[in-house]
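Q: Please design a sequence for this.
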């Protein structure tokens, strides 16, 4: 499906994060190592979010492949941040390829990305979407499963901690669409939360840096693969991986 990465650590340029390592995100855009179905390349747009030390987060999104967008070299190379999220899109068949469909989706200091799909969307999510106020549904950025999941998760984040919000959303979606693939990535500039549900997910965490990524971009021995159906909470000096226990139907 897609590739995404969350980074917390020393201030680094976004272009460096895109190009770092022999299996960099840039290379993963056209030669991913572990897609597990749903496409072979990630050429249907991309997005970047960065958190400044003060003020609102910044965001850039494009419908172009990351290797074809001149702003990567001309603009992103001069942006340095201690917190970054990058998402490369491989669109599900039938969903639009447009700038507004590219993650990360944002609200306040939150940013969200999906690597996966919701089976039988949009019908499978009708009952969950019906629980949202009409005003929120009208804020849907693009007619995609990822944008819909973000509306649902954003609503839950107002009343629950990130771990609880993600766990409850996975439970509810899997109950309605059991074959969904739900690798979700969430960041607020201070922590990274992610789910591994079908697709690959890896972490690299020490006292200075925390990276959560669809796949490793180099051969660093600190990379750890997240087991399937697990929830990740990561920040420099802290890594918690717990099972995503979904009740049997």
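A: Design:
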């Amino acid at each position: 499906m897609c590739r995404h990465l969350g980074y917390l650590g020393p201030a680094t340029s976004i272009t460096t994060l895109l190009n770092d390592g022999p299996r960099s995100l840039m290379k993963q855009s056209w030669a991913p190592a572990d897609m597990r179905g749903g496409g072979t390349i990630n050429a249907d747009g991309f997005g970047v979010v960065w958190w400044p030390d003060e003020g609102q987060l910044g965001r850039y999104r494009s419908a172009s492949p990351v290797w074809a967008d001149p702003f990567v070299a001309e603009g992103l190379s001069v942006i340095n941040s201690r917190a970054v999220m990058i998402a490369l899109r491989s669109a599900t068949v039938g969903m639009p390829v447009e700038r507004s469909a590219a993650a990360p989706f944002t609200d306040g200091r939150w940013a969200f990305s999906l690597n996966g799909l919701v089976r039988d969307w949009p019908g499978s999510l009708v009952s969950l979407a019906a629980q949202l106020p009409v005003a929120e549904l009208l804020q849907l950025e693009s007619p995609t499963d990822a944008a819909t999941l973000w509306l649902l998760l954003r609503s839950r984040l107002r009343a629950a901690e990130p771990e609880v919000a993600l766990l409850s959303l996975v439970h509810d979606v899997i109950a309605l669409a059991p074959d969904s693939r739900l690798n979700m990535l969430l960041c607020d500039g201070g922590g990274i939360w992610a789910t591994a549900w079908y697709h690959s997910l890896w972490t690299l965490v020490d006292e200075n840096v925390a990276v959560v990524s669809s796949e490793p971009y180099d051969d660093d021995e600190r990379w750890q693969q997240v087991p399937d159906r697990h929830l990740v909470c990561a920040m420099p000096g802290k890594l918690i991986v717990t099972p995503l226990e979904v009740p049997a139907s």
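Q: Thanks. Anything notable?
A: The chain has a mean pLDDT of 94. The longest helix spans residues 162-176.
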